[in-house]
Structures are given as C-alpha cells and as structure tokens.
C-alpha cells in the first residue's frame, strides 16, 4: 500500500489563480493558511464575497491530488503543484472519494476537515485552454464530475511541509458525499 503524504505546499497573499510553492505553510485554526489571500473565518473568494461577505469560509484550505496533476501532464497540460490554486498537494489519498466531514491530519499537528468539492470556474480555462472540460467531465447520466480537489477548514493549526504524512480519519456513518462548496 502506498503511504499518504504531502508532496507540495503553496500560498499567495494576492488573489491570483495560481499559488507559489513554498517550503512550508502554517495552518491557523479557524482561518486557513497564514499569509494566503483565502484565509479568513468568512468567505474570501472574491465572487463569494460579493454575494455574501458574512458567509462562513468553507474553503480555507484547498487540497488536490498529485495523481491528478500527473494525469494532466500525461494529457499534455503544462501544470504543476500550486498552479491550480491549491494550498496542499497530496499523494496516496483518494481526496474525491472522501465523505464530507473527513478529517485529514497533516504532519505533526495540523488537522483539516473536508467541507466539499472545489467547483472549477472559467479561471481554470483561462489558465490552460481545454483544462476545464478535463476536470469537469460529464458522466453518462449527464451530471458533472468535479475533479479539481477538495476544500476544507482548519480544526487544528500547525506547520505543514512536503514529506509530512497525511492520516485520514473518516467521520461516523452514515456518510454524506462531497458536493461543491
């Protein structure tokens, strides 16, 4: 069995699509990634702030699977860690298959709780033409599959760096599937 680990961490203090890969990030309980433009107790994504600036921030930390990035590279897309806006890139974790409320222990101290799926928007298409269709394919029943990672909130703060283990703690059953947040 493959061990689960953090492969990269990223942040950006400005509201840009891609984030800068850094040596470590500090997660702050109830806020997100210290120094990141999306950190905050209330919504920070600009489109959501316009709708309701008092809404809780369920998108404090964005996680994406390294396996997706590898698949995209194999499909001819020039993409690497942080470039799709994620804060934490993981390997060996089926992020999209987790139920809502799953807790992920990142490194020695940090704990995030998965709140839902990232809902990719036109910015991903502007970043790389054709990418939106690849990360939001249609299922046979016509519904949209969202493959661009999961969003989470910080339950316990701490430093996270590449090589740190990722420990998955499933919530009690019955499980709720992930939906876009």
Automatic annotation (TrEMBL):
GO MF term list: catalytic activity; molybdenum ion binding; pyridoxal phosphate binding
Alphabetical list of Pfam families matching this protein: MOSC
Coiled coil: none
Residue ranges constituting the MOSC domain according to the UniProt record: 20-169
Record's protein name: MOSC domain-containing protein YiiM
Organism: Motilibacter peucedani
